[in-house]
Structures are given as C-alpha cells and as structure tokens.
Amino acid sequence: MAAAIIWLVNSIIGLMILFIIISAIVSWLVAFDVINTRNRFVYSILTFLDAVTRPLMEPFRRIIPPLGGIDITPIIVLLLLQFVRMVFNNTAAPALFQLLG
C-alpha cells in the first residue's frame, strides 16, 4: 500500500512537471507565431494546459514580476516541485513504509 501511495505522489509531481514544460514550449510557439490559437485543436490544448498549470503558477506570478518580459515563474515552480519530490521521497516515503508496511 505504501509503495502505491509513493508511486502516485511521484507520478502526479512528474505529470505536473511535464505539463509545465509543455505549457512553456507551446506558449513560445504561440508567441513566435509558429502555431495559431485560432486552430481548435491548439486552442483546446492551450485551455487544458492553462487549467492544469494555473493553480500552481498563479500564486508565484503575483509575487515574481516578469524580468524584461520573460516570465521565470515556470522555472521557480519546477525547482519547487523537484524539491517537494526530494523531501517526500527522503522523509515521508520511509515513514509511510514503516506505518503501512
């Protein structure tokens, strides 16, 4: 049971990291006019990525201003997600194994 919980938490963090990276790449492609948001498929992908990543990114966007037009919030959130993953794996995971077996 503990292994399943640890796998689930690590998978969710990994998916969030993947979604943030994809969101950043797609936003660059839209900014450089490589892909067009009038395309229904692209618009639905952008809407999905925004809905998934906004709850993590928005609190940091209020605090961290864009530096010269560059939003460094994804980098900060990625670093924090990696930190949370490391802390979870080094402290909570062993405790879960002891508790649940």
What features would you describe in this structure?
With 101 residues, the protein is mainly α. The chain contains 3 helices and no strands. Helix 1 runs antiparallel to helix 3 (73-100) and helix 2 (40-63) packs across helix 3 (73-100). The longest helix is centred in the N-terminal third of the chain and has 30 residues, at 2-31. The protein is elongated and about 50 Å long. The mean pLDDT is 94.
Keywords:
101 residues, mainly alpha, 3 helices
Say how many strands there are. Answer: 0
- The helix content is over 70%
The main sheet comes to: none
Strand content: under 5%
Distance, first to last CA = 7 Å
Secondary-structure class = mainly alpha
List segments where confidence is low: pLDDT < 50 over at least 5 consecutive residues.
Answer: none
User: What's the overall geometry?
Assistant: elongated
Quickly count the helices: 3
Summary, kept brief:
This protein has 101 residues and is an all-alpha fold. The chain is built from three helices and no strands.
Q: What is the topological layout?
A:
Blueprint: H1 2-31, H2 40-63, H3 73-100
Helix pairs in contact: 1-2, 1-3, 2-3
